[in-house]
Specification:
With 235 residues, the protein is mainly alpha-helical. Helices cover 44% and strands 9% of the residues. It has a 3-stranded antiparallel beta sheet with strand order 1-3-4. Strands 2-5 form a two-stranded antiparallel sheet. The radius of gyration is 17 Å and the shape is globular.
Length: 235
């Protein structure tokens, strides 16, 4: 049996490659109508292959659903681990069961794991104490976490009580680029009337392939702009 280890035990390119393997595997499985719905840092693992290369693994499928199976799944069930949940799923509308869980919500969870790692992990361990903003994601209620994440999308680390850790100075460039992507996407949905704060949102089509393609384009852009992450060009 392969030994799985926490993905945040990795650093640098090894971490990013394993993290992206998790994101890619999740995307492919979503297209097969298996929806994880609880992506968090503890669910992203890795093992070493025969050449000692770390390979990313998405673990813990307890809350996953087969949307083609015989069940009462509607996509409106509220699932997730609060520090890594998509902002839409932390609203009162989601709490009332009015927000359908989409692929982009899970991909946003993958994004928040990256933010958490570059901000709160050193030498494979979580720093103690956590920066003030991230502490609110853990110990606050859903609305506190929601408001804090909205502010983070707008201002990044400016008011976070701490920036990216020195260990992650290169990888934080990717984190910032993906942050801009999610901020722009949220702003666009608001302009289209798809994001109405705590009122029930307009029904939105799930577009996993479109969203994944946009995400990969961001990765390639970072690879072209930053030679130290040039390996992203081939994603």
């Amino acid at each position: 049996m392969r030994r799985l280890e926490p993905i945040h035990a990795l650093v640098g390119e090894d971490f990013i490659r394993a993290w992206l393997e998790c994101a890619r595997a999740h995307h492919l499985i979503w297209l097969k109508d298996i929806h994880h719905r609880d992506l968090s840092l503890k669910n992203l693992m890795f093992y070493r292959d025969g050449d000692n290369r770390p390979r990313g693994v998405v673990n813990d499928w307890d809350l996953a659903c087969d949307v083609q199976g015989l069940q009462t799944h509607t996509g409106l069930e509220l699932t997730g681990t609060m520090p890594f949940m998509a902002i839409d799923l932390l609203t009162n509308a989601a709490f009332r069961g009015e927000v359908r869980h989409l692929y982009r919500h899970d991909l946003e969870s993958v994004f928040w794991t990256l933010i958490w790692v570059v901000s709160c992990i050193e030498d494979g361990k979580q720093i103690d104490p956590l920066p003030e903003r991230f502490q609110r994601w853990v110990s606050g209620n859903m609305m506190t976490c929601c408001d804090s994440k909205r502010a983070f999308l707008s201002f990044g680390w400016k008011y976070s009580g701490g920036g990216p850790r020195p260990t992650w100075s290169v990888e934080s460039k990717l984190a910032r680029a993906v942050l801009y992507y999610f901020y722009d996407a949220q702003h666009a949905r608001r302009m289209q009337g798809l994001l109405l704060d705590d009122t029930a949102p307009v029904e939105e089509v799930d577009e996993p392939e479109k969203v994944w393609g946009e995400f990969c384009a961001v990765l390639r852009g970072v690879g072209r702009a930053h030679p130290a992450m040039g390996y992203l060009v081939d994603i």
